[in-house]
Design a protein that fits this description.
The structure holds two protein chains of two kinds. Chain A is α+β, with helices and mostly antiparallel strands. Chain A contains ten helices and 14 strands. In chain B, α2 packs across α3. Chain B is 37% helix and 15% strand. The chains are: A alpha+beta, B alpha+beta.
């Protein structure tokens, strides 16, 4: 057997070797920016040099042929430089204003929608889902593709009150993070336990410790050590499933989709906010999730019509109040919307501020 | 003989519509019989269709790695390998991109060539932590694929209970609003933690993210255990001529609506001559007015970072946002960068020593209290760390006089 190669522990490479030379020239010397049209940014340096960025959407999970096509475009228009955003959009930069029009035409012709800038609906950040995750309740790429088909023109235009960041997550761990709208799996039944496998596969104390409501306890089932769940206490979160795969939480019917709104990372205007539950019990209806799309579009159109310029989703709702939100979106308000988790009292209305 | 394309009626429905289709991409890979990915992706399409039909996932984890590292490969073995044997092993190799996700096409093409030979041909740009995800590799191809990617100058990303791959906004490479060099900070900090990335031995994961201002384009505040955000101390920079131009462009009423009224601390006023009146003492550096008036307004010149610690998502105690532990520090000189790296190491060491198994930094702080965390890290207390003082009396205060003495000492120290 040949000797194994020791890794070169080089860490993160230097970005400047990959950057467009105009960015290297003007690094840290930018004066201002604007957006000449949706999908295009112009950054002007203190030296007066301008860099134009054309932004386009991708499918994130890309085959090498797609990546090579993006490279062909970058070679033709941007001297072989290319960048991706946090939300998997691709950015092409050039100092030559005359290249913008043909670049946009080329991207659109090759199927990459140009947009995602300013007050648009950006690409939906997504997780792995059925394609690659070991614990998914649904697919991610499919949900995102289905939603982006519906929101295509909102990606390409800047007609929202502020930017809209949508996220998806295939389980309640919520790898997708906070979003103006979050489309997340919500399980509704306790795990189904394959007792024959538990003792061989799961480190039982670890699994017991993982439960947020202390609903799991050791048990002897058919003479074998296993685990049992107090189903009255169980909140069906699925936290036990990753450390103990025989505790199957995913169910084709009972794993539902929930919609959350008003999450935000930035400290811009208001402080960062968590997204809040507004709808649940939606079916995990692959391959196009029409029930989910309907709720998302209703929330978006209500926000678009009613929010003031620059209000993010959560800020808009804070201004109009939750009664008005549920009234305008025609979503039912249930006991499940009332926060009963620890600290949840902070989410109750401790005032006589009422909306009628 | 080449395998037939599987029947995928549900996935086929994801090929229509205007958005780029990942299914079409999977099929393009599946159709090439001359490369290993042809058979792998035919099989993968079959398994994915099976997931769509049954609404269940069929991957399980395991142990796969490369020589010398204890993390960075995400093992995936199929639970339905009998039906879909060619994609029975479908591991992901996580590779750290350059900060800001910059590439030249030469490197990207080289990555594609490597993945065409050794993998499934499917690449996610990028994963939620910020890795390049080379998805779909047989166990015996992981080491050769990794060897070539590593020789290109790229290193493996984090996984498991270690330091994870970081993310940063575009920063000074193309943004006038960046208050520090996010890309340099990202690289400096992370490259000082390669051992903790590659050989994870922490209670749980630890994430760093770097955003150049309060807009937090790297989504650091809630997604990172350590969120490093740009801010400034002196007055905002105002170009009054450009303010007047903006007032003219929007109209006075809309300027008041969109800029003045949206200021969260009412620090702005419009003067009679359509110039801007800024109460910098009340300004919280939120970036709103600067975002709207990109030509007229800019962050101040005394720029630096604030550090928020403890962000995380649901598991186990519920969502937590990062909270301030360092309100301001400069990040310009080599010494400044060394001080940041040193602080990050102290954060990691304290976490390693004090967190319970599977507990994130935010949960640990929730359990032990912020003041104990600050003492452990020898970080000075600051009023900017709270949104308001405590509202209940259940606290033992017999050390009050001593704490007052410390406060006065800090104050007189700052005054000198």
């Amino acid at each position: 057997m040949s000797e194994l190669r020791r890794p070169i522990e080089s860490g993160v490479p230097d970005s400047k070797q990959f950057m467009h030379p105009a960015l290297v020239r003007n690094y840290g010397k930018w004066a201002w920016h604007d957006r000449p049209q949706p999908g295009v940014l112009r950054h002007v340096s203190e030296s007066g040099e301008a860099v134009f960025t054309v932004k386009a959407g991708t499918q994130r999970q890309m085959d090498i042929f797609t990546v090579r096509r993006l490279c062909d475009i970058a070679d033709a228009f941007c001297d072989g430089h290319i960048r991706f955003t946090i939300r998997s959009s691709v950015e092409f930069m050039t100092t030559d204003e005359s290249k913008i029009k043909p670049l946009i035409e080329r991207l659109e012709k090759e199927g990459f929608p140009v947009g995602g800038t300013g007050n648009s609906v950006g690409f939906i950040s997504h997780t792995q889902g059925w394609l690659h995750c070991d614990i998914p309740g649904t697919d991610a790429s499919g949900v995102v593709k289905a939603m982006m088909d519906e929101l295509y023109s909102e990606f390409k235009n800047e007609e929202m009150p502020n930017r809209v960041k949508i996220t998806t997550s295939c389980c309640q761990i919520n790898c997708g993070g906070q979003g103006d709208i979050a489309i997340n799996v919500q399980h509704t039944k306790p795990p189904v336990i394959n007792h024959a496998l538990v003792s061989g596969v799961c480190e039982r104390p670890t699994v017991i410790a993982r439960c947020p409501v202390a609903a799991i306890r050791p048990a002897l089932v058919d003479g074998k050590p296993s685990l049992e769940v107090d189903e009255k206490k169980c909140v069906c979160c699925g936290a036990c499933f990753p450390p103990c795969p025989p505790m199957q939480i995913n169910d084709p019917i009972h794993s539902k989709i929930a919609i959350w709104v008003g999450g935000k990372h930035s400290s811009t205007r208001s402080k960062p906010m968590f997204h809040k539950l507004v709808a649940a019990g939606l079916p995990n209806n692959a391959p196009r999730w029409p029930e989910v799309a309907e709720v998302v579009k209703k929330i978006l159109s209500t926000y678009k019509a009613d929010a003031r310029p620059w209000e993010r989703m959560g800020e808009w709702i804070e201004r109009i109040g939750w009664p008005r939100f549920f009234e305008m979106t025609e979503l039912p308000f249930t006991k499940y919307h009332v926060d009963t988790w620890r600290g949840g009292r902070a989410n109750l209305n401790a005032s006589s501020h009422l909306h009628f | 003989m080449s395998k037939k394309m599987p029947s995928t009626p549900m996935l086929d429905e994801l090929e229509s519509g205007p958005w780029p289709s990942f299914v079409s991409g999977l099929k393009r890979l599946a159709e090439v019989d001359a490369k290993p990915h042809g058979a792998i992706m035919k099989s993968l399409l079959g398994q994915l269709e099976h997931s769509y039909q049954t609404r269940k996932g069929y991957w399980k984890g395991g142990t796969v790695g490369v020589f010398g590292y204890g993390a960075g490969v995400i093992p995936r073995f199929s639970e339905v390998a009998g039906q879909f044997p060619e994609s029975s092993e479908f591991h992901t190799i996580r590779i750290m991109p350059a900060p800001g996700f910059f590439y030249d096409t030469k490197s990207l093409r080289e990555m594609c060539d490597i993945w065409e030979e050794h993998g499934s041909g499917l690449i996610a740009l990028h994963g939620q932590s910020g890795d390049i995800m080379f998805q779909g590799c047989r166990t015996d191809q992981v080491q050769p694929a990794w060897d070539k990617l590593n020789e290109m100058g790229f290193d493996m990303g984090g996984a498991g209970a270690g330091v994870r791959t970081a993310a940063s906004c575009i920063g000074p490479a193309r943004c006038e609003q960046a208050c520090f060099d996010t890309l340099a900070a990202h690289r400096t900090v992370i490259n000082d933690f390669t051992d903790d990335i590659h050989r994870p031995s922490l209670p749980y994961k630890m994430k760093f993210k770097f955003s150049g201002c309060a807009n937090d384009c790297a989504n650091a505040t809630q997604r990172a255990d350590v969120a490093i955000l740009g801010t400034w101390k002196d007055d905002m920079q105002v170009n009054q001529t450009e303010v007047q131009a903006k007032v003219k462009q929007l109209g006075r009423k809309e300027f008041i609506n969109q800029v003045i009224r949206m200021c969260p601390t009412q620090a702005l006023g419009l003067n009679d001559d359509d110039t801007l009146d800024v109460d910098n003492k009340s300004c919280v550096r939120c970036m709103h007015c600067i975002n709207v008036c990109t030509k007229a307004l800019k962050p101040g010149k005394e720029r630096g970072i604030c550090i928020l610690v403890g962000g995380k998502r649901t598991l186990k105690i519920g969502d937590l946002l990062g909270t301030v532990v360092v309100p301001f520090m400069k990040l310009e000189s080599e010494d400044d960068f060394a001080a940041l790296t040193d602080l990050c190491h102290r954060m990691l060491d304290f976490f390693a020593d004090n967190a319970l198994e599977h507990e994130r930094t935010g949960e640990m702080i929730e359990r032990i209290g912020l003041t104990n965390y600050l003492e452990g890290l020898e970080l000075p207390l600051d009023v900017n760390m709270i949104s308001q003082p405590r509202t209940n009396s259940y606290v033992r205060t017999d050390g009050w006089a001593e704490e007052v003495r410390k406060w006065n000492e800090t104050k007189s120290g700052a005054a000198e």
